[in-house]
Amino acid sequence: xxxxxxxxxxxxxxxxxxxxxxxxxxxxxxxxxxxxxxxxxxxxxxxxxxxxxxxxxxxxxxxxxxxxxxxxxxxxxxxxxxxxxxxxxxxxxxxxxxxxxxxxxxxxxxxxxxxxxxxxxxxxxxxxxxxxxxxxxxxxxxxxxxxxxxxxxxxxxxxxxxxxxxxxxxxxxxxxxxxxxxxxxxxxxxxxxxxxxxxxxxxxxxxxxxxxxxxxxxxxxxxxxxxxxxxxxxxxxxxxxxxxxxxxxxxxxxxxxxxxxxxxxxxxxxxxxxxxxxxxxxxxxxxxxxxxxxxxxxxxxxx
Length: 303
Ligand SMILES: [Zn+2]
Description:
Order of helices and strands: HHHHHEEHHHEEEEE
Structural class: alpha+beta
Strand content: 15-25%
Oligomer: single chain
Number of strands: 7
Bound molecules: zinc ion
Number of domains: 3
Largest sheet: 5 strands, antiparallel
């Protein structure tokens, strides 16, 4: 069984804010204090546990190491490898050069920043990935991140516009890494956790996120075209020839059956007032400005 990752050690979600991480760390530090006895941590090696918590906190509280650790977690999740980030770094025989991938030490490598958005109705969270990646490790990370963003980034009030920005910025990184040469193994031996670049995984078009977006946009369009005009229509009155209206001065206040108390009868409906018949005594405009059939109701207040 792989050891718990740093998020699990601290007991926070992978999209936790810095504040959440910090307050959780404080709580754990208090709980694991040598003088602090609770039933839950009876028999726990508090010193060893606290050392674990310290490493986890040190990694996650610094945005740079956190974004690198996020990449490590994502890239090692499919391989069954242990995401022991700090441990793996200490296993480097030499520090990886600025042209070598931080995960597999293949080269060339460039600095890549990818973002994953999580929309939650009223809130929005972002997981950031930043580091020195070879083409394949970066591609694996891009496919995972972009797919997840396309799936989970839309669902909130202010999320959609931000998500468009993130999708575009991830795509720009993708264009950069697509230009990169095929990764080659390091010539000077480097001991790293992952001995070859990460498997790039299924292309984006074979993942659900890419298809969700057009469906989402289509649903918005259908809503816009179909339901919104109806919503506006409902604000007006449903004029029908032969029905009657109640009025307050020259404003229509309601459409009623002519059997009920009314002020005038609708004798005709048209686009312009010239279409009104001779017995018209009043004209009401439903929408001022645009002449659509049904916009003008010709009324006879003697009926
Ligand atoms: Zn790599």
